[in-house]
Every structure is written in C-alpha cells, then in structure tokens.
Amino acid sequence: MKVICNSSPLINLAVIGRLELLRLLYGTIVIPEAVYQEVAVVGHGRPGAVEVGQADRIVRETVSNQTAVSALHELDRGEAEAVVLALENSGSLLIMDERRGRLAAVNLGIDVIGILGILLVAKRKGLIAALAPEIERLQTQVGFRIRPDLKEAVLRAAGEGGE
How far does Cα 144 stand from its chain's mean position? Predict the structure, then answer.
C-alpha cells in the first residue's frame, strides 16, 4: 500500500519531534511535488523543511492528471495534488488533516488518516507511551485545533479517557 502525505502532518509531526513515526508505521512516504515545494523549498528554515528535504524514506512523485488537480480548486495546490496522487494510486492511504481535503478524498473513495489517527496507531503499537502529551504538544507548539469531543474520543480510544 502506498502512503501519501500532505504538508501539515509532516510539518506538525516534525515540530513535536515525531516525524519518525511515519517511517516506523508506514516505511516509505510519498509526497507530491507541490507538498515538497511547500515544506522544503518555500518553508526553508521552518520546522520540517530539513527533515523532509533530507529524509530518504520520503519520496517525491509527480501527479499525472493535472486536470484533476485543477478541478479541486477549493483546495490549495499541495492538498489537491495529494488527493489526486492518492486517486492515481488505487488502494493508497492519504495522510491529511485539512477538513476540505479530507472530505474531497473521502468523496472520491480514498482512505484517509490524520495526525490524531497516526498518533493513536503509534500508541497502540507501543511507539509512544501516551497520546495525551502528544496532543498537548500539538496544541501548544503547533496551535493544532481539535474539537473537545474529538479529543475525548481519541483519548478514550487510546485508553486514556474517562468512561
């Protein structure tokens, strides 16, 4: 299964020092050219830029169907390319947090996971000790927004929430 990632999960995981979870969970991560440009070139000097630029397990792939990318005009270029790249690679998994991008992907039949799902899987596999501190770091260091009910549901799924 090919795993394709958008910009924000790469950046946010790099900020909290957890980018290696992608390699540990999925091996090689594929990013479209627009995501590489956004993170490693335009984002030069920002969190994630060096990690993405130098990671041997993050590979770039060019999207073939530029018409489909243009049709997703409500998304930014990186999101649109990530969705189309996932569509071009049937059976792939898309890592994306942005609501509009996730909705577009789901409507196209693409499997999607976000950073909270990645952290939950990492907790279940014993790669992180606890989910709550990771979410706290996302919120304080990145400004990651999460609805209180979703946060509680994820913590409960990790065995860290209330009844």
Answer: 13
